């Protein structure tokens, strides 16, 4: 029996055009091979075969319109044919799970349906203050302790959970808390001990502390304007050192390396360690924050400025945490797609407690838990201070963070108290010590560390007789020595160890420390610590003594660095530790293989006219991607990133074709499973569907765009977004992408202030190109026709992914449908497209008066239409230039002008703008769907009269036609303005312009759109 392939369910569409036939009669094809591409007015989708076999006849041809059920292919008969679409593989499981869930539900209902009168409206109190029956409480607590010691934590946890569930079902109103007491999460007896030599580690840490401070102080002594920070690293030194000595594994030829996001302004400490490791020398330390001369050390982690050292720009606060989360997620994506091995690599991010107030810092913690990112470890250094003062003077930042992270599903490890507290806490039989710990607010904790032991005795322990008694045998000095967890290498080690072994969820280590630790009276725990960059001699001597740095007073006065001999125990130990962990860190390297750009002919179909068929550049782009997915080199490397707009851009066909990445696969049968473009989630899915989350999508894009260095796999990320919700929304991340040397494509779709009709003020983008132009390594284009897009995109692939140039592309696409012409045969056309402009058309019939018309994006077409009117109705010739990028033209213009000014005696160079327009006749009029500043950019690079038109002002909803009229970039305005320009240049009489203004009902009295 012969088998037939019919058009499957294609959703709401009917009579959809066949635009490509991918098979022919006699071909042997397999299930899932694409056979034809169909295209509606919104999207193009490949139809895969659900039959394997030999094609007897192809029943359709290009241009045919098809609907569901129409015949596509006839197959010769074969026994192994499978006509029926297989039942989605998970269906059976889903049914089974549903049935099981129903039985559970029944049981639950039985409990819930107990008579209402049985419900006791009791309120369970969890606070000690209102303990109605302490003896009973004691009984319960003892029972719990017995369970813990007999059956372990898991059993105790189970019982508590059951109790809570029971109480909830009985109608008890349980006050909800995500907090545990203000003590360490890991009890002393469960701490895993480090096998390191603590004495030597302390000595090394002291030297790093000293050199970091010395570097900042020396720089500011020389040039007080340089700035820098001492207090931040001083509070974090132990947190970094334990990681460096014991946990963070470097990238080498056997292992991909852990990725560490260092807190931006702790950079001095990282340089100071690199100095001891022999990676940086004194001269380099002395050029901290003096980067203009090569070899200087950058103020903060900047891969652009120190490309062999820093990996992640973090100093714009809030970006680090978000980027780290998406980095960890991307790592899992690469693993699940089989592009890298699962080697247990971790992503560590160091964050300030003040930084956690940035909405970005916590904005993605839900995703991290949902995606079960157990490869991610946050370390929040809670020194209780930010720049101006306490982070939470009246509250407790550690508890607040604990609540938020636990609520989101993270594994939370609090490291509050150092080892000296252990015996005190163990002896706190009455619970009063923990009670004070809970009651004391951060403002008080900070003030205590700015004072002394006597003050702590009085204000803290003195609060209750029980606690006063607890420390009665301790001297004030002993009390002062009671350390905070973040400064105790044992506690930090135990926390790191636990975090590294945690499975199934991300971990946050919340460590308490002291800002400016060891800096003495001027710098420790005082509100001004953050900005302390100078230490006077007394402070330096104190600092030396505090950390036993082996320097003489004289050496301290000279603020000398200290580096022990290469053969010293310290240096040997330090290097050995790093050797054991695979090498130095941070280090930025890349061993990624380039991706060969596809041959030019892959885009040939975009170089011929679309004839009568109208399409948008967005649709042309989707067609182009569909084609790229057929290129064996490119296809697996594409990372399409879409924030819940795939349907807007006609990309839903990708769901089926390459799947949506979902680390758990698809646990449900999608509602639209019968349709061709069904919502398919898959563990090895390729599309990153980020939801309504531009910042997250951009973070994913940055992770993929720097994959070549962080994972040694060159990838091609393409992030497609609503252009208005691009740069102005995530501008800081885009800037960080530039710093990170990201490579990939950003596509601003539905672009153009007047091209996106209907939507209105907050949707219509008339300035993204200008924002993009502020990023030095961002290459931008605003193409009009499909062949321009093809040429630009292929060159982007070649430059970034084959030639490894550290630039990234921003291309706008629009949703206006029009037919696209054939690519001009002119051999210079391609060069012009890439450089920013080329002549697309010339009207030359009358040879009297001429005007140069420059148009970009969709407004080029208005310009072309205006030129036709000028020719036909006013006998005015024109040359029309398609400007694909005013930004690129400006870059070239600036460079040429600079060269000429610096080389007045040499032969002067000519800008590309001048090359194009220098010998042309008549004034220039330029327009785009962006602010006038867009086209104005090239005004300085031609000595001809230049007039700019554009869409300055707030957008508003209306039809495309009305919007263009409002912003004065429609054909009619362009004709009238063109005539006015010529009149101003005294090439025609002004009456023509005046008449045209009247004819087109242009209101000369209307205020500038910027004022409306
Ligand atoms: C987005 C952003 N806003 C402001 C700053 C300026 N700034 C640098 S450090 C700092 C205080 C940091 O406090 P915290 O996060 O607690 O770090 P700590 O130094 O205390 O470890 C501020 C406001 C910045 N770098 N980035
Ligand atoms: Mg802080």
Q: Could you characterize what this model shows?
A:
With 1012 residues, this protein is of the alpha/beta class. Helices cover 38% and strands 13% of the residues. A six-stranded parallel beta sheet has the order 18-15-19-20-22-21, sandwiched between helices. Strands 9-10-11-13-12 form a five-stranded parallel beta sheet, with helices on both faces. Helix 28 links the parallel strand 21 and strand 22. The chain binds thiamine diphosphate and magnesium ion. Thiamine diphosphate binds next to helix 5.
Please provide a brief summary of the model:
This protein is an alpha/beta fold. 38% of the residues lie in helices and 13% in strands. Helix 4 (198-222) runs antiparallel to helix 5 (231-247) and helix 35 (971-984) packs antiparallel against helix 36.
């Amino acid at each position: 029996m012969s088998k037939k392939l019919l058009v499957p369910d294609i959703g709401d569409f009917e009579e959809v055009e066949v635009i490509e036939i991918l098979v022919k009669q006699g071909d042997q094809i397999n299930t899932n091979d694409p056979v034809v591409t169909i295209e509606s007015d919104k999207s193009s989708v490949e139809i895969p075969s659900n039959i394997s076999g030999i094609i007897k006849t192809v029943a359709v041809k290009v241009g045919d319109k098809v609907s569901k059920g129409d015949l596509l292919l006839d197959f010769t008969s074969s026994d192994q044919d499978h006509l029926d679409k297989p039942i989605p593989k998970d269906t059976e499981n889903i049914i089974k799970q549903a049935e099981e869930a129903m039985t559970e539900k029944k049981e639950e209902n039985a409990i819930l349906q107990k008579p209402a009168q049985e419900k006791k409206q009791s309120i369970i109190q969890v606070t000690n203050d209102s303990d109605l029956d302490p003896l009973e409480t004691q009984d319960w607590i003892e029972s719990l302790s017995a369970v813990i010691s007999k059956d372990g934590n898991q059993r105790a946890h189970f019982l508590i959970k059951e109790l809570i569930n029971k109480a909830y079902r009985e109608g008890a109103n349980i006050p909800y808390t995500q907090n545990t007491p203000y003590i360490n999460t890991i009890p002393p007896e469960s701490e895993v001990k480090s096998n390191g030599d603590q004495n030597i580690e302390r000595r090394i840490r002291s030297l790093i502390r000293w050199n970091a401070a010395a570097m900042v102080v020396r720089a500011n002594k020389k040039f007080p304007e340089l700035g820098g920070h001492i207090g931040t690293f001083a509070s974090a030194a132990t947190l970094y050192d334990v990681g460096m000595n014991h946990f963070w594994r470097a990238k080498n030829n056997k292992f991909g390396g852990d990725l560490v996001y260092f807190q931006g302004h702790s950079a001095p400490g990282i340089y100071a360690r690199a100095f001891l490791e022999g990676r940086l020398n004194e001269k380099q330390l002395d050029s901290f924050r003096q980067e203009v001369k090569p070899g200087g050390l950058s103020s903060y982690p900047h891969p652009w400025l120190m490309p062999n050292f820093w990996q992640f720009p973090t100093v714009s606060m809030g970006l680090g945490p978000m980027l780290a989360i998406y980095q960890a997620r991307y790592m899992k994506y690469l693993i699940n797609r089989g592009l890298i091995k699962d080697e247990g690599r971790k992503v560590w991010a160091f964050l300030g407690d003040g930084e956690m107030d940035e909405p970005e810092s916590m904005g993605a913690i839900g995703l991290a838990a949902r995606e079960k990112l157990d490869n991610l470890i946050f370390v929040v250094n809670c020194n209780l201070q930010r720049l101006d003062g306490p982070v939470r003077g009246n509250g407790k930042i550690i508890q607040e963070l604990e609540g938020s992270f636990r609520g989101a599903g993270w594994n939370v490890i609090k490291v509050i108290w150092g080892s000296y507290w252990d015996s005190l806490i163990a002896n706190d039989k009455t619970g009063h010590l923990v009670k004070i710990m809970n009651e004391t607010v951060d403002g008080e904790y900070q003030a205590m560390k700015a004072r002394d032991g006597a003050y702590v005795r009085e204000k803290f322990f003195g609060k209750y007789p029980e606690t006063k008694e607890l420390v009665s045998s301790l001297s004030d000095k002993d009390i002062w020595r009671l350390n905070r967890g973040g400064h105790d290498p044992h506690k930090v080690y135990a926390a790191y160890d636990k975090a590294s072994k945690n499975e199934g969820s991300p971990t946050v280590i919340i460590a308490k420390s002291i800002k400016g630790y060891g800096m003495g009276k001027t710098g420790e725990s005082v509100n001004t610590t953050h900005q302390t960059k100078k230490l006077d001699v007394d402070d330096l001597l104190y600092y030396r003594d505090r950390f036993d740095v082996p320097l003489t007073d004289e050496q301290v006065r000279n603020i000398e660095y200290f580096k022990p001999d290469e053969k010293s125990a310290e240096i040997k130990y330090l290097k050995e530790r790093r050797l054991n962990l695979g090498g130095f860190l941070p280090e930025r390297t890349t061993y990624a293989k380039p991706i060969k750009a596809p041959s030019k002919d892959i885009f040939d179909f975009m170089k011929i006219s679309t004839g009568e068929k109208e399409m948008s550049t967005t649709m042309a782009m989707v067609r182009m991607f569909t084609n790229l997915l057929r290129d064996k080199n490119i296809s697996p490397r594409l990372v399409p990133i879409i924030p819940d707009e795939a349907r807007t851009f006609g990309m839903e066909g990708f769901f089926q074709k390459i799947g949506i990445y979902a680390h758990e696969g698809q646990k449900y049968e999608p509602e639209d499973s019968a349709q061709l473009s069904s919502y398919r989630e898959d563990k090895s899915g390729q599309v990153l569907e980020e939801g309504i989350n531009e910042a997250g999508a951009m973070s994913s894009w940055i992770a993929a765009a720097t994959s070549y260095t962080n994972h040694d796999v060159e990838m091609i990320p393409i992030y497609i977004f609503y252009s208005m919700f691009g740069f102005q929304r995530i501008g800081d991340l885009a800037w960080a992408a530039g710093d990170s040397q990201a490579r990939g494509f950003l596509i601003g779709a539905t672009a153009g202030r007047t091209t996106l009709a209907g939507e209105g003020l907050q949707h219509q983008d008339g300035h993204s190109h200008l924002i993009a132009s502020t990023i030095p390594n961002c290459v931008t284009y605003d193409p009009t026709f499909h062949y321009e897009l093809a040429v630009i995109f292929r060159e982007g692939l070649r430059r970034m992914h084959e030639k490894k140039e550290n630039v990234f592309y921003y291309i706008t696409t629009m949703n206006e449908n029009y037919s696209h012409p054939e690519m001009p045969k002119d051999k210079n056309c391609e060069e012009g497209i890439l450089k920013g402009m080329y002549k697309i058309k010339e009207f030359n019939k009358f040879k009297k008066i001429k005007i140069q018309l420059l148009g970009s994006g969709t407004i080029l077409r208005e310009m072309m239409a205006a030129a036709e009117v000028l020719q036909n109705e006013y006998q005015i010739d024109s040359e029309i230039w398609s400007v694909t990028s005013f930004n690129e033209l400006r870059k070239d213009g600036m460079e040429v002008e600079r060269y000429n000014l610096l080389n007045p005696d040499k032969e002067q160079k000519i800008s590309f703008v001048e090359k194009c327009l220098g010998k042309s006749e008549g004034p220039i009029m330029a327009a785009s769907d962006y602010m006038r500043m867009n086209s104005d950019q090239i005004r300085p690079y031609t000595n001809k009269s230049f007039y700019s038109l554009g869409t300055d002002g707030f957008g508003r909803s209306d039809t495309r036609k009305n919007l263009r009229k409002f912003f004065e970039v429609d054909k009619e305005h362009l004709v009238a303005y063109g005539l006015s320009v010529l009149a101003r240049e005294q090439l025609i009489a002004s009456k023509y312009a005046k008449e045209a203004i009247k004819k087109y009902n242009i209101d000369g009295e209307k205020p500038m759109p910027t004022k409306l």
